[in-house]
Design goal:
InterPro entries: Epimerase_deHydtase, NAD(P)-bd_dom_sf, NAD(P)_dehydrat-like
CATH architecture: 3-Layer(aba) Sandwich
CATH superfamily: NAD(P)-binding Rossmann-like Domain
Order of helices and strands: EHEHEHEHEEHEEHEEHEEHEHHEHH
CATH class: Alpha Beta
Keywords: Oxidoreductase
Strand content: 15-25%
Shape: globular
CATH topology: Rossmann fold
Domain NAD-dependent epimerase/dehydratase: 5-237
Radius of gyration: 19 Å
Pfam families: Epimerase
Distance between the termini: 49 Å
GO molecular function, one term: oxidoreductase activity, acting on the CH-OH group of donors, NAD or NADP as acceptor
Number of domains: 1
Helix content: 25-40%
Strand order of the largest sheet: 3-2-1-4-5-7-11
Structural class: alpha/beta
């Protein structure tokens, strides 16, 4: 009989690709949705298959999680709770992230699943300032500081909470965490562009220029592959794995789009914006505020551990951003609908 993998958040960008990859590998997949009304959209995105079933569960509610875990062999916890990113109170993001992760892990341990692989973020293993030189690895933990963006704090504190729980847990369930960088790549549906919105904005011409920000681009398909490798490898139990991909400046992203798309990238900005312009714009544009900490960033993360232990190798960043853009164009969502 095929093993069963529970994927949290089947409506999400990473969740959808995780479902696709697991089904292709012959697993039975169960995915959580907050309402069964979302099930048809997931089926349409990943192609209907008998091996895909649904469970209703919300990261902010205990109900449904024990039923979702019944008979499950592995859990890929890739979902992110719907915290309020516009709130000035950091707890609006921190509490949902931390409590949601613990809720999933505790339900998994009650069901004695073999292993939980949880998606954290590279910013949970970063120095206090991205402007610091050097390459860091999984041994570094971000020091919680109220001055840091709430999203970065939420990822760090959520991951710390699950590892603290496992430190006092005595049972068969194992934990592994994966820490991705900027997740880009093709989309499965026009209704879910996920974290590709930055490429949308570049294609739409809504960006006046490229901010001096470096992204560690990981293709969503490679990220899912890393999760599955971490799920299966005996050596991955109890480990953190950075999955950041290649470092690329935003101006290099623009150049890759121009080279790969030709006239379809005519609206992509090529000039680099001075840092002070971005900081001034962030005073009136909330979406830019979280970016200001990354201006001029030099710190990078090492994926040597994932490559050595799991045999993981991500594809080049330029390939990912071009295929991301091609997918957005093919799905008719190259124009950033959020930007009007």
């Amino acid at each position: 009989m095929a093993e069963t993998v529970l994927v949290t958040g089947g409506t999400g960008y990473v969740g959808g690709w995780a479902i696709v990859a697991l089904l292709e590998r012959g697993y039975d997949v169960r995915t959580t949705v907050r309402s069964l009304t979302k099930a048809d959209a997931v089926r349409a995105a990943v192609a209907p298959r008998d091996q895909l079933t649904f469970a209703v569960a919300d990261l902010m509610d205990d109900d449904g999680w024990d039923a979702a875990m019944a008979g499950v062999d592995y859990v890929l916890h890739v979902a992110s709770p719907l915290g309020d990113e516009t709130s000035k109170d950091p707890d609006a993001l921190i509490i949902p992230a931390r409590d949601g992760a613990l809720r999933v892990l505790k339900a998994a341990t009650r069901a004695a699943v073999k292993r939980v692989v949880m998606t954290s973020a590279a910013n949970a293993a970063s120095p206090a300032s991205y402007a610091e030189d050097g390459i860091t690895d999984e041994t570094l933990w971000t020091v919680d500081d109220p001055k840091l963006p709430a999203y970065r704090r939420s990822k760090t504190l959520a991951e710390k909470a699950v590892w603290d729980f496992m430190a006092s847990y005595d049972g068969p369930t194992e934990l592994t965490t994966v820490l991705p960088g900027a997740v880009l790549g093709p989309i499965l549906s026009a209704d879910n562009v996920g974290t590709t919105r930055i490429i949308q904005r570049m294609l739409s011409g809504k960006m006046p220029g490229a901010p001096k920000i470096g992204l560690e681009v990981v293709d969503v398909r490679d990220l899912v592959d890393l999760h599955i490798r971490a799920m299966l490898s005996p050596e991955a139990a109890g480990e953190r794995f950075l999955g950041t991909g290649e470092f690329i400046w935003m101006r290099e992203v623009a150049a890759a789009l121009k080279a790969g798309l030709g006239d379809q990238a005519k609206s992509v900005p090529t000039r680099e914006l001075p840092n002070f312009v971005v900081r001034l714009a962030s005073l009136t544009d909330p979406s830019l505020r979280a970016l200001t900490i990354s201006l001029g960033r030099r710190n990078r993360h090492s994926t040597a551990k994932a490559e050595r232990i799991l045999g993981w190798k991500p594809r080049p960043a330029a390939q990912t951003v071009v295929e991301c853009a091609q997918s957005l164009i093919a799905h008719g969502v190259a124009r950033d609908r959020m930007a009007g």
